[in-house]
Write a structure and sequence with these properties.
single chain, alpha/beta, Rossmann fold, 7-stranded mixed beta sheet, 5-stranded mixed beta sheet, binds NADPH dihydro-nicotinamide-adenine-dinucleotide phosphate, binds (2Z)-2-iminopentanedioic acid
Length: 447
């Protein structure tokens, strides 16, 4: 059977076994499509059924999360942890609290995480979890109650050598604090079971900034290949959360100008650039739990476009930083015809498959599993510091982060250079991430 046929069969099986999980299908398809040449060169992967095994999570935990709101009413949410692959290390990946969360979304995120974590070269397997809990409008006390109940079940399945969660959409330092506190109480252990912890109780400097900083370092490497820099570039961002904040800081520091931010309500356009106190204000916006970016427009007197996405704004670089499939083929066409030279996914799977393919062909395109790996890489550095029971300076951590992002870029070139001028970063990241996991699975036998 040809490699292409093997891949098609595996994909058919994924569709059959995981009905309705469209985001998971999309993520699997994108990885499988990168692999024909790898299977041709490595028949041992076919023999050992690596593809069939790698698309199947090792374990999924689904649980009830009951809690009481401030009025004393009982609420019930659903909690999840997808422990996808532990060939390279303990399961590692964030928790997402958002009303849109379902099993298919968490499986796509956990699957992506397996290859992303492999690309970092640090010893981490892949996992993801979360809940359909909606933090919007909840009091601190309600968030704490929810987190404690969530941990009352999850604590059985995680640990510093088993599974190490972190943040993602709707889970930041506050939530990690409540989750960690409850874990500590239940286990009577102070260990590095979470990353993204507060700085004075085991967290790493630079972790809050790391996803954004790392992504900008990656973009810098891409631009270097075209003899370009960030200096003077107009950058369109979506989102206004933790990741968008880190990107805005680093782009501004390196001489670029961030001209948009967006939320579920629409986008703001700031022709002078989101800089200085405006970047700090992003943190307030996020912490307000209001889901609104319009407040920025009111505060700084800039235009707000209700119900619209920022991709219609003319720019040099477009960086989706909010959520999956937030930039589609029409957005990509608009960006390209407006002169955009680079799209990098900083949210996980920020672009639809056809948008990513078009951008790879016409301009430069980076997939999330490469571009946003700096967040989890710095989580890996936090784990190292916890194991050694010491802390590194910002400079030291940032230096490691920069080097890791450069290495990931090199890996993408190694496996993704398809002609002198064209690099298929999707292919490069998928193959680079896959081979390490596949080899480790071969070494460890049929488990
Ligand atoms: P935050 O919760 O801090 O911010 C998320 C942003 O995305 C908010 O602006 C949020 O608005 C918006 N958003 C979320 N869901 C939707 C939706 N369905 N429609 C429109 N907007 C939405 O999360 P992060 O900044 O941490 O995460 C942003 C992206 O980066 C995610 O894709 C995440 O997976 C990815 N990522 C995060 C890493 C990290 O370390 N935190 C690491 C690597 C990737 P609102 O919530 O108000 O709807
Ligand atoms: O998508 C991601 O890589 C994250 N949300 C960060 C995961 C982590 O374990 O730091």
């Amino acid at each position: 059977m040809s490699s292409k046929q093997i891949i098609e069969n595996v994909y058919e099986q994924v569709l059959k076994r995981n009905p309705g999980e469209t985001e998971f299908h999309q993520a699997v398809k994108e990885v499988l499509e990168s692999l024909p040449s790898v299977l041709d060169e490595n028949p041992e992967y076919v023999e050992a059924r690596i593809l069939e095994r790698i698309v199947e999570p090792e374990r999924i935990i689904i649980f009830r999360v009951p809690w009481t709101n401030d009025k004393g009413n009982t609420q019930v949410n659903r909690g999840f942890r997808v422990q996808f692959n532990s060939a390279l290390g303990p399961y590692k990946g964030g928790l997402r609290f958002h009303p849109s969360v379902n099993l298919g979304i968490l499986k796509f995120l956990a699957f992506e995480q397996v290859f992303k974590n492999s690309l970092t070269t640090l010893p981490m397997g892949g996992g993801k979890g979360g809940s359909d809990f909606d933090p919007k409008g909840k009091s601190d006390n309600e968030v704490m109650k929810f987190c404690q109940s969530f941990m009352n079940e999850l604590f059985r399945y995680i640990g510093p050598n088993t599974d190490v969660p972190a943040g993602d959409i709707g889970v930041g330092k506050r939530e990690i604090g409540y989750l960690f506190g409850q874990y500590k109480k239940l286990k009577n252990e102070f260990t590095g079971v979470f990353t993204g912890k507060g700085i004075n109780w085991g967290g790493s400097l630079i972790r809050p900034e790391a996803t954004g900083f790392g992504a900008v370092y990656f973009v810098q490497e891409m631009l270097k290949l075209k003899n370009e820099t960030l200096e003077g570039k107009n950058v369109v961002l979506s989102g206004f959360g933790n990741v968008a904040w880190g990107v805005a800081l680093k782009i501004t520091e390196l001489g670029g100008k961030v001209i948009t931010l967006s939320g579920p309500d629409g986008y703001i356009y700031d022709k002078d650039g989101v800089k200085g106190e405006k970047i700090n204000y992003m943190l307030q916006l996020r912490a307000s739990n209001n889901d609104r970016v319009e407040d920025y427009a009111k505060k700084f007197g800039v235009p707000f476009y209700a119900g619209k996405r920022p991709w219609e704004v003319k720019c040099d670089l477009a960086l989706p930083c909010a959520t999956q499939n937030e930039l589609d083929i029409n957005d990509a066409k608009t960006l390209i015809s407006n002169g955009c030279i680079l799209i990098a996914e900083i949210s996980n799977m920020g672009c639809t498959a056809d948008a990513a393919k078009l951008a790879t062909k016409k301009i430069m395109f980076a997939p999330g599993k490469a571009a946003n790996a700096g967040g989890v890489a710095t989580s890996g550095l936090e784990m190292s510091q916890n194991s050694m029971r010491l802390t590194w300076t910002s400079e030291e951590t940032d230096k490691h982060l920069l080097q890791i992002m450069k290495n990931i870029h090199e890996t993408c070139l190694k496996y993704g250079q398809i002609s002198k001028d064209t690099i298929d970063y999707v292919k490069g990241a998928n193959i680079g991430g896959f081979v390490k996991v596949a080899d480790a699975m071969l070494d460890q036998g049929l488990v």
